[in-house]
Amino acid sequence: MKGRNKDAASLPPVSGGAFWNPDEQVFGYREIKKIARHHVVQRGEHVHALPVAVQQISAQWTWNGQAMDVDRYMEAARTSGVIVLKHGQVILERYNLGRTEKDIWLCNSVSKSVTSMLVGAAIQDGAIKSMDDLVTDYIHELKGSAYEGVTIRQLMTMTSGVKYSVEDDMDPRSDVYSLWYPVLESDVSPVVSYMRRMPRADQPGTKYNYSTADTHLAGILVSNAVGKLLSEYLSEKLWQPYGMEEDAVWTVDAAGYEHAGGGLAMSLRDLARFGQFMMEGGKAGGVQVLPPDWLAEATSAQVIFPSRSDRYDRIGYGYFWYISNDGYDHSGFAGQRILVYPNNKVVIAIHSAWLNENQLNRPEYVQMQKAFVEALHASAVAHR
Length: 384
Hints:
By secondary structure, the chain is α+β, with helices and mostly antiparallel strands. The chain has helices at 22-30, 70-76, 111-124, 152-156, 175-178, 190-195, 212-226, 230-243, 268-279, 292-298, 362-382; strands at residues 38-41, 60-63, 66-69, 79-86, 89-95, 104-106, 248-251, 264-267, 283-284, 287-288, 303-304, 316-317, 322-324, 327-332, 336-341, 346-352.
């Protein structure tokens, strides 16, 4: 199968995954557990069924004057898998690039929304008292830094105000890569070491600035609050009770903390199940995992974007979720997506390995995926 005959030892470091060539990217995203230090998110004994609907959808649309369908798109955009659920039933599921439904795939920044969910679970469990608690109450190493006075709410809406460069996945000098360089501080996450040296750029709560660092800190915060590994807590709160089908893996930093902003790898079906869990009100195994009022806040625009400032036409940002007029989503580098449309009871999950040698190609891929998602959503809404 294409992309499977690679040697994990020959790949560049995971922190440089944006610079993998196309074959390395396909192998690396699927076989991340062979490449990076990680913790396993263990599944349980039962599996949450995803029944296949009798009637399937077959989206068709026009892109740049050319007729497109799902298969043409998946080849053009190097998509390894796409699944669409409506009312919890599968109405489309396809795989590509030598991948099967059993393979996990690195979700990149889609991981941020799973971290968001774990913050809500910790609030429901009483381990975190309030979104207005201070970050430094849970990460003591940040006391005296620019995070002094920053609330969990501000951390999760990317309004911490701590200086952090605009993320450029193709620039090795960007903060998003510098975060992971080892800092010689025993048992301290490299992210904590790096970010506690950063100055304050804006008053907390006043300016949105997309920051993987803030998400990683949110993961450390949850782990400290619940006294467990983030991967262990995710298994306990979601993977086992909801019935995920495959073990997931979560890559870790030099201190053993999970990369909460981008290191989670799971199967495509389990990514869709996560979206379904959110749409069902945050319940797993008959237990309310997420506070309903918190869930409503998390998936509402806490930050409003300037008109047409977002490349996917989103209106704002919630708690590590992008917000649109008809739902919420998150995206990850190289074409990873999870989209939830509560009013239409539709979930769409996509895994990809976009070409990345030429950064100028990326806007075209984004717009192509936007058209793809719109066609999938329209077909799902029309499905009876």
